[in-house]
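Duplicate of earlier report; 3-hydroxyacyl-CoA dehydrogenase type II input re-posted below.
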Amino acid sequence: MDLRDQAALVTGAGSGLGEATARALAAAGARVALLDFNLPAAEAVAAEIGGLAIGCDVASAEGAEAAVARAAAEQGVARILVNCAGVAPAKKMLGRAGVMPLEEFRRTVEVNLVGSFNLLRLFAAGAAELAPLETGERGVAIHTASVAAWEGQIGQTAYAASKGGIVGLTLPAARELAPLGIRVCAIAPGIFETAMLKGLPEAAQESLGAAVPFPSRLGRPAEFAALALHILSNPMLNGETIRLDGALRMAPK
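Output:
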């Protein structure tokens, strides 16, 4: 897909992987709507790249519907969706503070998995009405999974379950939407430089990076964005979850 002048939706675009992807899409000529629960963060990025910032709780049906409708009204119906919004809580089921509250598990699944499906269904409904491009494509959706989908660590039951759901969602969604010319893929990053990891001491960041076989460092958001743009440009990539982890395989803890 030629990205020039295409409308794109990026969730979690106020920081981290979403911000890097929004910047890369804008640099490639796309019209980018930056959806984020943290509206000021999205506005700051949008001001720099000429995008449209929209506050959005991806787990809310009504909120997502309003956000997608506004983006379509101001920038046109999107042919591109990149779901980066997510939360990464770390808590044991049976910790020192007692049993993990069910609501904490539920909220993680709602944001990471239900939120991704929520935006996918709305994006697909709009893209299905667009005329196909020369490639036959009407749109491309990319989800953010994680290596935790396969190798979730102790304390990651909620996070790993939600990301495992993303992996399970991708292929059947791609098969369902294939007759409409809509592709669906997912990226499963390893340990990346996000706001959470940047808050750790430098020694801790270096220790985490050293666990990656090669390159022995934390992944960079721009590298995630580069893969997202390649998926968008390569029409044969469909129904696939691609690990982006430097050959890392997570230990139990």
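DSSP finds nine helices and nine strands in the chain.

Merging into the original ticket.
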